[in-house]
Amino acid sequence: MKQWNKGVWLVAALLLVGWLWGTPPGLLGKADAVGYAVCHRIDVRSFHWFGRQLPLCARCTGMYLGAMLAFVFQLVVGARRSALPPLRVWAVMGALFLAFGVDGLNSYLHLNMMQTLLPWAPHLYEPSNSLRLFTGSGMGVTIALALLPVFNQTIWALDGERPAEALPAISDLRTLFVLLALTALLNILVLIDNPWVLYPLALISSLGVVVILTLVYTMVWVMVFRCENRYHHLAQLALPLAAGFTVALLQIAFLDAVRYWLTGSWAGFPLSKNLIEPLFRRPL
Q1: 34 to 54, 60, 160: CA distances (angstroms)
Q2: Which among 64, 117, 122, 257 is least surrounded, fewest beta carbons within 10 Å?
Q3: How far apart are CA 35 and CA 18, in angstroms?
Q4: Rounded CA gap, 246 and 55, in Å?
Q5: Residues paired with residue 168 on neighbouring β-strands, in sequence order
């Protein structure tokens, strides 16, 4: 078992060093590489820092910032609480999910590329980065409110000593609306376009990608090895978290490599049809 433990840490370290070496330099460069694996990174649909495109588009920036805020909020309010939110909270979460889907579809249909390929494609309204940010953050909150309780249910020991852990962290609409108000304030900070604020928020949004993937893959590892509900302290979770982080980084590195092979650039997807079509003519 100790050799297995050492192997996980060794693989995680080697993969991290290789990924850091092969991606653009600087903190924002590494954040760009994370965003490159999950986001189209279209320039006109992104916010900018001193003229430099942020690592994620406006919608993804909102989604991962919203998720990170909701994770922290739940930890403050309920720590290891593992019950899913009640139905009335799910109803609001469903509305946020629907808003994300409608705005995303409308934005996609309005995309210049889509209009070039299908000039008859309709759209409901003029999309904007502000709308993308707000609908994205609502989706991020929804993801976090669903993911963290499931993670807690999977990981922490059920010893009966903490009955409060069986309660939901977000148990009523008042608490949910406090979280949504904080999310709106975070969005306003992004829209103010202060470079001293945008820089850390850009890094946090990219970190959100790694955090979500790590939590998901940590649960997968725990379930594969049938170690559910065995952990009492965060230190005991170090190895599963390392394994989850390794798979998360492997996914990011793989998607980075495929996309770079297709495009030959760390830039976002081009909007022009004439620039997109050659990507699919590359020899296999």
Answers
A1: 11, 12, 40
A2: 122
A3: 17
A4: 21
A5: 83
Question: How many Cα atoms are found within 13 Å in the side-chain-facing hemisphere of 41?
Answer: 24
On whether the CB atoms of residues 255 and 38 are closer than 8 A, the answer is: yes
Residue-wise pLDDT for 123-170, tens only, equals 677 889 999 999 999 999 999 999 999 999 999 987 655 554 778 889
E strand residue ranges, the chain: 48-49, 52-53
The answer to whether residues 248 and 180 touch, using CB atoms and an 8 Å cutoff, is no
pLDDT single digits (tens) 189-243: 999 999 999 999 999 999 999 999 999 999 999 999 999 999 988 899 999 999 9
* Dist. CA 188–CA 130, nearest whole Å: 9
The SS3 call for residue 13 is helix
What is the residue type of 191?
A: L
Place of tokens 């209009």: 115
Name the packing angle between helices 58-78 and 195-224 (round to 10°): 70
Sign of the CA dihedral running 43, 44, 46, 49: positive
pTM given for the model: 0.90
Contact between residue 63 and residue 137 where contact means Cβ atoms under 8 Å apart: yes
Mean local confidence (pLDDT), 14-30: 95
Residue of 145, 138, 133 whose CA lies nearest to 180: 138
